[in-house]
Each structure stands twice: as C-alpha cells, then as structure tokens.
C-alpha cells in the first residue's frame, strides 16, 4: 500500500476528515431544480386545459432533459421516456397517469417536479471547481505549449477531454477517457481521476474501477516522467468497512508505487514530489 493511501486512511479515521473534505465537495442539500417561466406557463396551460397528451409530453421531455423529476413514481413512465411516440398510441395509459397528476393539483405537481437534486448528482463538477479556485496554490494554464514548456509548477485547466488529449499527445496516455486532473510539479507530470464514493455498491464500485483503470493504464514510453494517481474520497477509507470489496481491494491489491489518496492531501502530495 502506498504511503499516501495510508495517510488518507489515517486522516479519515482519526481527524476531521469530513469537515476538511467539505471544502472540496461543498454539497448543497436544498438546491431545487428550476423550470423556465415559459415551460412552467406551458405546463400550467396543459394542466388547466386538461390536455392529457401535451401535458405528459412536456413533463417527459423536461424529465429526459434532466430539468425536472417526473412528479410521480409509475412503472410505465420509463417506457414513455424511452419511446415518446408511445404516448400517442396508448390513450388509456396516458389518461391513467394524467388523472393522478390532476388529483395532485398544479402546485404539488410543480413542487414534486422541482424537488432538490440528490446530493450525489451534484458531486461531478465540484472537484474541478475546487481546483479552479486555486486551492493548490499554483497557476493555471489552458495552453498546451505553455504547459509543456514552462518550468513552473502548473495546473492544466482545460476540459477533461483537453486534458486527456494532451496526455495522449505528449505523455503516452492510452485510455480513451477524459481526465479530471493534470498538473506539472518539479518537472513531473501528474494525471488522474477524482471520485467521491458516497457508499458501497452499484455505481460507486464502477467509479472506483474507472479510477483504477486510469491508475493502471499502460503508458506509451516518452521522454516525460509521468505519475498516475487516483484521487478518491469517501467511505472507502473507513477502517470498520475494510472488509467491503473495494475497500479491501484498495488495501490489499495495490503496490507501493500506485498512488491512491484523498483530495484533502493532494496539495501535500504534489509538493512532496
């Protein structure tokens, strides 16, 4: 196990890890979804006019665009989300679903549709936001030649795809996958994925495996020194959960040179190089 993995485990089990982590991932508990005034006006008109088909179509459309949550739980809604044309072919199903919506009342329909986002859906951009705020104490550049030729410590601030394109072009990176992090410290290039694992199982295991694939990706030889890291946070560091599949794997299956660490320790790691 790498020393920075050990430090991350110690941090999570002995210190105010969550308080420190909140600086990286400042989750907002009550951020409601927003519907544009024009869309809300259309929903109101279809609702009050009892236009079943158009009401269902606009709610399905807004749900597919991730602007709202469909206001009720119904096993047939997923089918309609995947095949919008089925709305026109199934009048009884449309009447049944919309009758439930009418019974809710317009205000409750809007309240349900704009319910706050689940916190795990907010996490995606937060690591990048934290990096872009200058949290690591070095300059950011988005020009690849400046990043390549400078002798300064730098963060590459392009998009995930731009980071991976740079890494493929100059650093021998072989995965067809965006990168969350690309930096240059003391002449060494550091690339990696950042993941917040809020629990065990399901998509969280997939996120861990994705970070692992980047960490263990083969690099085509170049004249650059490249360090791959996995910036992982969450339940994986809890000692009481060490028997869980991905927690056990992190502790037992990675060697001393494979760096898994918390974002809280990222600055210390970079300056230690």
Describe this structure in words.
The chain contains 14 helices and 6 strands. The chain has 2 domains: 3-27 and 121-272, no CATH class; 37-113, no CATH class. α4 packs across α7. Helices cover 46% and strands 12% of the residues. A hairpin with a 2-residue loop joins β3 and β4. The mean pLDDT is 93. The chain is an alpha/beta fold. The protein has a 6-stranded mixed sheet with strand order 1-2-3-4-5-6, sandwiched between helices.
Largest sheet: 6 strands, mixed
Order of helices and strands: HHHHHHHHHEHEHEEHEHEH
Number of strands: 6
Question: Kindly, what is the distance between the CA atoms of the first and last residues, rounded to a whole number of angstroms?
Answer: 18 Å
State which percent range the strand residues make up: 5-15%
Class of secondary structure makeup? alpha/beta
Summarize this structure briefly:
The chain has helices at 3-14, 17-21, 37-48, 52-64, 77-82, 86-89, 91-104, 106-113, 126-132, 144-149, 160-170, 203-215, 245-252, 266-272; strands at residues 139-141, 154-156, 181-185, 188-197, 226-234, 259-261.
What does the secondary structure layout of this molecule look like, with pairings?
Blueprint: H1 3-14, H2 17-21, H3 37-48, H4 52-64, H5 77-82, H6 86-89, H7 91-104, H8 106-113, H9 126-132, E1 139-141, H10 144-149, E2 154-156, H11 160-170, E3 181-185, E4 188-197, H12 203-215, E5 226-234, H13 245-252, E6 259-261, H14 266-272
Parallel strand pairs: 1-2, 4-5, 5-6
Antiparallel strand pairs: 2-3, 3-4
């Amino acid at each position: 196990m790498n020393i920075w993995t050990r430090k991350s485990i110690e941090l999570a089990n002995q210190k105010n890890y969550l308080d420190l982590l909140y600086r990286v991932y400042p989750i907002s508990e009550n951020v409601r979804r927003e519907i544009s005034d024009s869309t809300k006006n259309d929903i109101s008109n279809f609702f009050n006019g009892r236009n079943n088909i158009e009401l269902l179509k606009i709610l399905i459309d807004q749900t597919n665009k991730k602007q709202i949550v469909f206001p009720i739980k119904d096993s047939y809604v997923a089918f309609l989300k995947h095949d919008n044309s089925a709305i026109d072919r199934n009048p009884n199903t449309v009447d049944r679903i919309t009758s439930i919506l009418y019974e809710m009342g317009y205000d409750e329909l809007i309240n349900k549709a704009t319910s706050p986002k689940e916190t795990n859906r907010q996490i995606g951009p937060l690591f990048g936001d934290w990096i872009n705020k200058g949290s690591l104490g070095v300059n950011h550049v988005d020009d690849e030649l400046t990043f390549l030729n400078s002798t300064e410590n730098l963060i590459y601030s392009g998009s995930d795809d731009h980071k991976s394109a740079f890494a493929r072009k100059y650093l021998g990176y072989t995965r067809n996958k965006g990168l969350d992090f690309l930096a240059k410290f003391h002449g060494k290039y550091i690339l990696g994925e950042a993941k917040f694992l809020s629990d065990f199982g399901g998509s969280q295991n997939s996120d861990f495996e994705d970070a692992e694939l980047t960490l263990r990706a083969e690099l085509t030889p170049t004249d650059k020194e490249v360090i791959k890291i996995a910036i992982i946070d969450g339940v994986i560091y809890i000692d009481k959960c060490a028997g869980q599949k991905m927690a056990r794997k992190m502790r037992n299956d990675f060697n001393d040179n494979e760096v898994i660490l918390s974002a809280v320790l990222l600055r210390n790691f970079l300056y230690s190089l």
